[in-house]
Amino acid sequence: RLEEFLKKEVDLELSTLPDFEERVIDVSEVEQLMNSINAIPAPCAPVINPQAPNAATGTSLRVCWGLFSDDTVECYQLCYQPVSNERHTDEQAEHTLKVKETYCTITDLLPNTQYEFWVSALNASGISPPSERAVYVTAPSPPTIKNKKIRSCENAALVCWESRDINPVDSYTVEL
């Protein structure tokens, strides 16, 4: 039977033409959704901490900050400048540092001087708004003892010194 069937000519023409719709699928909404899932939002503004006790020397300050949110941050941009009522000079110019951690020790500062600090967070999507500004103060320079004015007697001693700082110092501690 099979042999006979294969010997016959078979007409394979279809009586009706297939009617296929040409559909274009719009995937733009899906692409937008996928891009929004993969995109990292720009970070929120960091919060700069007030100056901690013992965070200053005569020429350096340790500045710390943090984030309120779980933002993805690649690095921070720390800016600072001396606080002054006068017009800006080159020495009072704004300085910017890139920092990986949430703290930084700034060196080569002037003794007994106020500095204003603010910080921004950066990631692949952009930069955050700056933090509030915080004022930090370097420690005063040690005073110079006036050796020629030292006087002493059996129950007392007179020691005189002078400050090398332009800004007034709140108090001194004398150790014997």
TrEMBL record:
Domain Fibronectin type-III: 46-142
Matching PROSITE patterns: FN3 (PS50853)
Cross-referenced Pfam families: fn3 (PF00041)
PANTHER family linked: E3 UBIQUITIN-PROTEIN LIGASE TRIM36-RELATED, FIBRONECTIN TYPE III AND SPRY DOMAIN-CONTAINING PROTEIN 2
Protein known as: FSD2 protein
Lineage: Eukaryota, Metazoa, Chordata, Craniata, Vertebrata
GN (gene name): Fsd2
